[in-house]
């Protein structure tokens, strides 16, 4: 291996629930579609994105702290039902 070759760096993002930094691959991207927070599994939805660990503890913390309206710079309440269904189906 030459000196110029280095392993590819993985981008880091901050979870809006627990505020810990993790690799982007370990987090679930959430996008705003209309007035709903929807999970962006492929990471291709347009607009701002917020990241959360796909566990119920981080999601509950983010909802309690009202982190999603702040992350999306939105006014009023957002519908988080699609996101809650995804996190409930994927883990404990």
UniProtKB/TrEMBL annotation:
Recorded superkingdom: Bacteria
Domain YlxR span(s) in chain numbering: 13-75
Listed name of the protein: DUF448 domain-containing protein
């Amino acid at each position: 291996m030459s000196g110029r070759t280095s392993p590819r760096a993985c981008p880091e993002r901050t979870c809006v629930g627990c505020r810990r930094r993790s690799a982007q691959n370990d987090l679930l991207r959430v996008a705003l579609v209309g007035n709903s927070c929807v999970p962006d599994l492929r990471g291709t939805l347009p607009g701002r994105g917020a990241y959360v660990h796909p566990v119920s503890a981080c999601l509950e913390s983010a909802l309690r702290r009202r982190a999603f309206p702040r992350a999306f710079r939105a006014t009023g309440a957002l519908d988080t039902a699609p996101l809650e269904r995804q996190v409930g189906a994927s883990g404990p």
